[in-house]
From TrEMBL:
The keyword Transcription applies. This is AraC family transcriptional regulator. The keyword Plastid does not apply. InterPro entries: Homeodomain-like_sf, HTH_AraC, HTH_AraC-typ_CS. Pfam families: HTH_18. Keywords: DNA-binding, Transcription, Transcription regulation.
Protein backbone atom coordinates (compact mmCIF):
# COMPACT_ATOMS: atom_id res chain seq x y z
CA UNK A 1 0.00 0.00 0.00
CA UNK A 2 1.25 3.52 -0.76
CA UNK A 3 -0.13 7.04 -0.60
CA UNK A 4 0.21 9.61 -3.37
CA UNK A 5 -0.32 13.28 -2.66
CA UNK A 6 -1.91 15.20 -5.49
CA UNK A 7 -1.94 18.96 -5.81
CA UNK A 8 -5.01 20.99 -6.88
CA UNK A 9 -7.74 18.51 -5.94
CA UNK A 10 -10.42 20.82 -4.57
CA UNK A 11 -13.80 19.19 -5.13
CA UNK A 12 -15.68 15.96 -5.72
CA UNK A 13 -15.31 16.40 -9.49
CA UNK A 14 -11.53 16.45 -9.02
CA UNK A 15 -11.79 13.14 -7.18
CA UNK A 16 -13.85 11.69 -10.05
CA UNK A 17 -11.33 12.90 -12.66
CA UNK A 18 -8.36 11.42 -10.78
CA UNK A 19 -10.28 8.19 -10.22
CA UNK A 20 -11.01 8.00 -13.94
CA UNK A 21 -7.31 8.42 -14.79
CA UNK A 22 -6.33 5.72 -12.29
CA UNK A 23 -8.84 3.35 -13.86
CA UNK A 24 -7.60 4.14 -17.39
CA UNK A 25 -4.07 3.23 -16.27
CA UNK A 26 -5.39 0.10 -14.52
CA UNK A 27 -4.01 1.21 -11.15
CA UNK A 28 -5.58 -0.38 -8.09
CA UNK A 29 -6.56 2.12 -5.41
CA UNK A 30 -8.35 1.68 -2.13
CA UNK A 31 -9.31 5.27 -1.34
CA UNK A 32 -9.36 8.75 -2.86
CA UNK A 33 -9.89 11.95 -0.88
CA UNK A 34 -9.03 15.58 -1.58
CA UNK A 35 -5.29 15.61 -2.26
CA UNK A 36 -4.63 11.94 -1.46
CA UNK A 37 -4.84 8.62 -3.25
CA UNK A 38 -4.24 5.38 -1.41
CA UNK A 39 -2.93 2.77 -3.82
CA UNK A 40 -3.15 -0.97 -3.26
CA UNK A 41 0.57 -1.31 -4.00
CA UNK A 42 3.66 0.79 -4.68
CA UNK A 43 3.92 2.22 -8.21
CA UNK A 44 6.84 1.28 -10.40
CA UNK A 45 8.60 4.23 -12.10
CA UNK A 46 6.92 3.64 -15.47
CA UNK A 47 3.40 3.61 -13.98
CA UNK A 48 4.20 6.67 -11.87
CA UNK A 49 5.45 8.58 -14.92
CA UNK A 50 2.35 7.56 -16.87
CA UNK A 51 0.10 8.76 -14.06
CA UNK A 52 1.95 12.07 -13.75
CA UNK A 53 1.74 12.56 -17.53
CA UNK A 54 -2.01 11.91 -17.43
CA UNK A 55 -2.67 14.23 -14.49
CA UNK A 56 -0.63 17.29 -15.50
CA UNK A 57 -2.78 18.29 -18.52
CA UNK A 58 -5.81 18.08 -16.22
CA UNK A 59 -4.27 20.57 -13.78
CA UNK A 60 -3.09 18.09 -11.15
CA UNK A 61 0.39 17.29 -9.95
CA UNK A 62 1.88 14.50 -7.85
CA UNK A 63 3.68 16.08 -4.89
CA UNK A 64 6.87 14.54 -3.56
CA UNK A 65 8.34 16.96 -1.06
CA UNK A 66 7.07 17.11 2.52
CA UNK A 67 6.51 20.88 2.65
CA UNK A 68 4.35 20.90 -0.49
CA UNK A 69 2.28 18.03 0.93
CA UNK A 70 1.68 19.97 4.14
CA UNK A 71 0.66 23.10 2.20
CA UNK A 72 -1.75 21.04 0.10
CA UNK A 73 -3.20 19.41 3.23
CA UNK A 74 -3.76 22.85 4.77
CA UNK A 75 -5.57 24.03 1.62
CA UNK A 76 -7.64 20.87 1.33
CA UNK A 77 -8.58 21.00 5.03
CA UNK A 78 -9.79 24.59 4.65
CA UNK A 79 -11.65 23.84 1.41
CA UNK A 80 -13.29 20.83 3.02
CA UNK A 81 -14.23 22.84 6.11
CA UNK A 82 -15.72 25.77 4.17
CA UNK A 83 -17.26 24.09 1.12
CA UNK A 84 -18.09 20.51 2.05
CA UNK A 85 -19.12 20.46 5.70
CA UNK A 86 -22.02 21.97 7.55
CA UNK A 87 -19.86 24.31 9.52
CA UNK A 88 -21.28 23.83 13.00
CA UNK A 89 -17.90 23.54 14.66
CA UNK A 90 -17.01 26.16 17.23
CA UNK A 91 -13.28 25.35 17.30
CA UNK A 92 -10.92 27.90 15.86
CA UNK A 93 -9.05 27.28 12.65
CA UNK A 94 -5.60 27.08 14.24
CA UNK A 95 -6.70 24.29 16.60
CA UNK A 96 -8.44 22.37 13.81
CA UNK A 97 -5.39 22.51 11.51
CA UNK A 98 -2.91 21.69 14.27
CA UNK A 99 -4.96 18.68 15.30
CA UNK A 100 -5.60 17.45 11.77
CA UNK A 101 -2.01 17.85 10.55
CA UNK A 102 -0.20 17.00 13.80
CA UNK A 103 1.95 20.12 13.66
CA UNK A 104 2.21 23.26 15.75
CA UNK A 105 0.09 26.04 14.21
CA UNK A 106 3.02 28.49 14.20
CA UNK A 107 5.00 26.06 12.04
CA UNK A 108 2.05 25.58 9.68
CA UNK A 109 1.39 29.31 9.50
CA UNK A 110 5.01 30.25 8.80
CA UNK A 111 5.42 27.49 6.19
CA UNK A 112 2.19 28.49 4.43
CA UNK A 113 3.10 32.19 4.39
CA UNK A 114 6.62 31.52 3.13
CA UNK A 115 5.48 29.28 0.27
CA UNK A 116 2.13 30.83 -0.69
CA UNK A 117 2.88 34.50 -0.05
CA UNK A 118 -0.32 34.91 1.98
CA UNK A 119 -1.48 33.86 5.41
CA UNK A 120 -3.62 30.87 6.28
CA UNK A 121 -6.20 33.30 7.64
CA UNK A 122 -6.40 35.24 4.35
CA UNK A 123 -6.72 31.97 2.43
CA UNK A 124 -9.50 30.88 4.80
CA UNK A 125 -11.30 34.21 4.38
CA UNK A 126 -10.97 33.99 0.57
CA UNK A 127 -12.55 30.52 0.65
CA UNK A 128 -15.38 31.74 2.86
CA UNK A 129 -16.03 34.69 0.53
CA UNK A 130 -16.15 32.29 -2.45
CA UNK A 131 -18.70 30.20 -0.56
CA UNK A 132 -20.74 33.33 0.21
CA UNK A 133 -20.70 34.21 -3.52
CA UNK A 134 -21.88 30.71 -4.38
CA UNK A 135 -24.71 30.85 -1.85
CA UNK A 136 -25.74 34.34 -3.00
CA UNK A 137 -25.95 33.16 -6.62
CA UNK A 138 -28.05 30.13 -5.61
CA UNK A 139 -30.46 32.63 -3.97
CA UNK A 140 -31.85 30.03 -1.57
CA UNK A 141 -30.62 31.53 1.71
CA UNK A 142 -30.87 34.98 3.22
CA UNK A 143 -27.68 36.80 4.19
CA UNK A 144 -28.49 36.04 7.85
CA UNK A 145 -28.73 32.32 7.06
CA UNK A 146 -25.45 32.45 5.10
CA UNK A 147 -23.73 34.22 8.01
CA UNK A 148 -25.01 31.56 10.40
CA UNK A 149 -24.00 28.69 8.12
CA UNK A 150 -20.44 30.01 7.74
CA UNK A 151 -20.01 30.85 11.45
CA UNK A 152 -19.89 34.62 11.06
CA UNK A 153 -20.69 36.41 14.31
CA UNK A 154 -23.03 38.80 12.47
CA UNK A 155 -24.32 39.79 9.05
CA UNK A 156 -22.40 43.07 9.40
CA UNK A 157 -19.12 41.19 9.94
CA UNK A 158 -19.78 38.98 6.89
CA UNK A 159 -20.65 42.07 4.79
CA UNK A 160 -17.52 43.95 5.89
CA UNK A 161 -15.28 40.97 5.14
CA UNK A 162 -16.99 40.39 1.79
CA UNK A 163 -16.53 44.05 0.80
CA UNK A 164 -12.89 44.06 1.92
CA UNK A 165 -12.14 41.06 -0.34
CA UNK A 166 -14.34 41.81 -3.37
CA UNK A 167 -14.82 45.58 -3.22
CA UNK A 168 -18.59 45.02 -3.31
CA UNK A 169 -21.28 44.59 -0.71
CA UNK A 170 -23.08 41.23 -0.87
CA UNK A 171 -26.27 42.91 -2.10
CA UNK A 172 -24.38 44.80 -4.84
CA UNK A 173 -22.65 41.56 -5.90
CA UNK A 174 -26.03 39.82 -6.08
CA UNK A 175 -27.54 42.72 -8.05
CA UNK A 176 -24.69 42.66 -10.61
CA UNK A 177 -25.06 38.87 -11.01
CA UNK A 178 -28.79 39.20 -11.60
CA UNK A 179 -28.30 41.97 -14.18
CA UNK A 180 -25.90 39.77 -16.16
CA UNK A 181 -28.26 36.81 -16.14
CA UNK A 182 -30.52 36.66 -19.19
CA UNK A 183 -34.02 35.23 -19.04
CA UNK A 184 -34.32 31.87 -20.78
CA UNK A 185 -36.47 33.28 -23.57
CA UNK A 186 -33.72 35.81 -24.41
CA UNK A 187 -30.91 33.25 -24.69
Amino acid sequence: MSILFIKNMVCNRCIMVVENELEKLDLDFTNITLGEVTLAKELNPDKRNALEAALIPLGFEVIDDKKSRIIEKIKNSIIDLVHHQDNDTKSNLSDLLSEKLNHDYNYLSNLFSDVEGTTIEKYFIAQKVEKVKELLVYDELSLSEIALRLNYSSVAYLSNQFKKVTGLTPSHFKQIREEKRKPLDKV
